[in-house]
Amino acid sequence: MSRPFVVLKFGGSSLATVDRIRNVAVRVKNDYLDRGLKVSVVVSAMGKTTDGLIDLAQRTSNVLNGRELDQLLVTGEQQSAALLAMAIEELGFRVKSFNGAQAGISATGYHMEGRIADVNPERVLSWLEGEGEVAVVTGFQGINEAGDFVTLGRGGSDLSAVALAVALKSSFCHIYTDVDGVYTADPKIVSTARKLTYISYEECIEMAALGAKVLQARSVEFASLYDMPIYVSSSILEGEGTWVKEKTIKEGLAIKAVVHDKNIAKIAVLGVPDVPGIAAGLFSKLADRGVGVEMIIQSVMRGDVNDIAFLVKETLLGEAIEVCGDYAREIDAQGVTYDAEVGRVSIVGVGLSLHPEIPAEMFSVLSGEGINIDMISSTSNSITCVISSSMIDRAVSALHRHFLEGEK
């Protein structure tokens, strides 16, 4: 049974200045407090604070310890939480701020890429069920068994908000962003992109994982596990946003969006001996360094060797090259190549695998634009092509025209 309060989340751009923090306080008042609801507000760091703190750390030391970085990064959200609490209190409401530990958010895993282990928000709940009207909670952070802060990865405040909404038995989680919903493509690239009124968890997870920036993929996955509806809308503009919730029962093809990601790089380990355990060794070493990989492709064996190619986040390219280079020498592979000038473009929609004509149409559209495809992967809900990053905008526009605007 849901409780009569709701969890809200505001991102860094919504909190970038004192004026914007005051505007957020007024938004919380107008949208929810004036309706008699009690509210928990999850916040990100102000503006580009997290990037600034990382830059500060890099200028201070060439040896970046994950634990110490996390102890530094959590201060950004704590700053936002305290300032927003002050702004809300000035409007006449009873409010307290809580950091991740105080809010009962437990985390495990690597520093800077932690995962939520549990949420036990006793202090938040006690405050809201008692005299409190608003609890402001820091996003992006939890505390591990050693009592150290662990951050939850980029976009982790979305995950914090959804997890808190589940723990507090809120009826839904309202995520305010600098855009007014989820679109069929990036409106900065495709002026005719349409805002979606509704999208399923399944489709939204796919979009987020493939590069859409509105929501963190892990937060939508968490919401789907606990059937927590998410409402995405603008923190500045009025108007309807987008609901992310369980899909309705409907047969047929519905391509929802064209998604792109320019922040990736391709790595290939060449001439890998074709013996059992080689791939396991490579990806274990990458995992040990906290390097996540995507779209793994092993070539057809030639002789007794093959090539293994995959994608990594552009920010992890240097680390991945080092790991792959060391391993290539260890197994006597032929070498390692990489390409940082690539991006990926994807079409997303439930049931794509049931429509064999769709891949052919996608490849034909890209060919018609003179775009060469480097790598291809597909799931039941998406088809993704890796292409030159310089061709991404053209590819997104052409695919949107073909699949979502009816231009055949």
From TrEMBL:
Domain of life according to the entry: Bacteria
SUPFAM superfamilies xref list: ACT-like (SSF55021), Carbamate kinase-like (SSF53633)
Domain named ACT: residues: 267-347
Record field: catalytic activity: L-aspartate + ATP = 4-phospho-L-aspartate + ADP
Positions that bind substrate: T50, E77
Binding site for ATP: K9, F10, G11, G12, T177, D178, Y183, K213, V214
Protein family per UniProt: Belongs to the aspartokinase family.
Protein name per the record: Aspartokinase
Source species of the chain: Acetomicrobium thermoterrenum DSM 13490
UniProt lineage: Bacteria, Thermotogati, Synergistota, Synergistia, Synergistales
